[in-house]
Automatic annotation (TrEMBL):
Pfam families: RDD (PF06271). It is a multi-pass membrane protein. It comes from the Bacteria. Keywords: Cell membrane, Membrane, Transmembrane, Transmembrane helix. The lineage of its organism: Bacteria, Pseudomonadati, Pseudomonadota, Gammaproteobacteria, Chromatiales. It is found in: Cell membrane. Its main location: membrane. The chain crosses the membrane at residues 65-87, 99-117, 241-269. This is RDD family protein. The keyword Cell membrane applies. Residues 243-332 form the RDD domain. The keyword Cytoplasm does not apply.
Length: 348
């Protein structure tokens, strides 16, 4: 048995097959305990294969984004065809257990979803206009009151300090009340204690004092005379990159569950092709040219979140990476190539 804290001379006798100096073939568990070239090896069958062009990949992910938004609507008009295609694919590949699983999911959703798209009801959503200078103090108070050890007196003390900052701000009285209510409901107090605390805290809130800066009007420039900075211009623009990225984040927030399902199961069970990649004639393959497992596909879809978190830089690196690997490809050790055909490989 190979010891993880000992150094061994190993030899690769075949792909993913290693033997040590005694001739013992290492098991998969033993291989994971030492450094091997496995993670950095590209299968010979992939050498020379044409990579998918960035434009193709961009169009494919755009199509997939539209499909995920459609799935997020909860309409059977969109859900059933996509599940039906996956079911047909599994039957064709004689993956009966997987086909049964997809069929059960499809039947379950058929009895729980409607054919008409579901729109979120915004009538009960609380809209809170919180100044940026209060966001950090509010977050600190929320963490403290949400602590299991913070009892009634502790919550009261934290709210009393934060209430002074609220009263000093120009927030509307309604927004101030909503803020305190959110903080009280975030605590671990029982319903009776929360009700009592709301009654005592909310009545001590004051109306905003408007025009508190009148004495400085002579030395402060008018708002119309101040040139907005670049960030403010981007925020005010209806066609800015900032709002576009924000929209993507919002869509992925709403449809995260569907996105996780879509990218995981379609990549693993549909030969590395989502619907967008299928239409664009490209596919995802592992560096070792082995079929992608569900776990590897799940890891890869997690890379999309990393790409968004890096301000799209994780996606844009396909423009300069030697093998056009985006961040999700780096995470899962994959490539995106032009779909291989039986005779020849070419990219139109």
């Amino acid at each position: 048995m190979t010891s993880p804290d000992a150094s061994h001379d190993i030899t690769q006798v075949a792909p993913d097959t290693f033997v040590d100096e005694t001739g013992h073939q290492l098991s998969k568990k033993e291989i994971r305990q030492i450094v091997t070239p496995h993670a950095f090896k590209v299968a010979d069958s992939l050498i020379g294969q044409p990579l998918a062009k960035p434009m193709r990949r961009g169009i494919a992910i755009g199509i997939d984004g539209l499909l995920i938004s459609a799935l997020s609507s909860g309409s059977l008009v969109f859900v059933l065809p996509l599940l039906g295609y996956l079911l047909w694919n599994r039957v064709r590949q004689q993956r009966i257990q997987q086909a049964v699983l997809v069929g059960i999911v499809a039947l379950t959703l058929a009895f729980t979803l409607d054919f008409s798209p579901q729109k979120p009801d915004s009538g009960d959503v609380k809209k809170l206009n919180l100044p940026t200078d209060l966001a950090l103090p509010m977050a600190g108070v929320a963490l403290k009151v949400a602590n299991d050890n913070c009892d009634y007196d502790c919550v009261s003390e934290q709210l009393a300090e934060f209430r002074q900052q609220l009263n000093a701000s120009e927030m509307s009285l309604e927004d101030k009340k909503l803020t305190l209510e959110e903080l009280i409901e975030a605590s671990h107090l029982n319903e009776s204690q929360q009700k009592q605390l709301k009654a005592s805290q909310l009545q001590q809130l004051t109306q905003p004092v408007m025009g508190t800066n009148q004495n400085h009007s002579k030395i402060q420039p008018k708002a119309d005379d101040v040139e907005p900075n670049l960030w403010q211009k981007l925020e005010q623009s209806n066609h800015s990159l900032l709002q576009w990225v924000t929209g993507i984040l919002a869509d992925f927030g709403v449809g995260f569950g569907w996105a996780m399902f879509y990218f995981t199961f379609y990549i693993s069970w549909n030969h590395g092709q989502t619907i967008g990649k299928l239409l664009m004639g490209i596919q995802v393959v592992q560096l070792d040219d082995q079929p992608l497992s569900l776990w590897n596909s799940f890891s890869r879809q997690g890379g999309y979140g990393a790409g968004l978190a890096t301000g799209l830089i994780g996606f844009l690196q396909i423009l300069w990476d030697p093998n056009r690997q985006a961040i999700q490809d780096k995470v899962a050790s994959t490539l995106v190539i032009v779909k291989r055909k039986a005779a020849g490989h070419s990219e139109s």
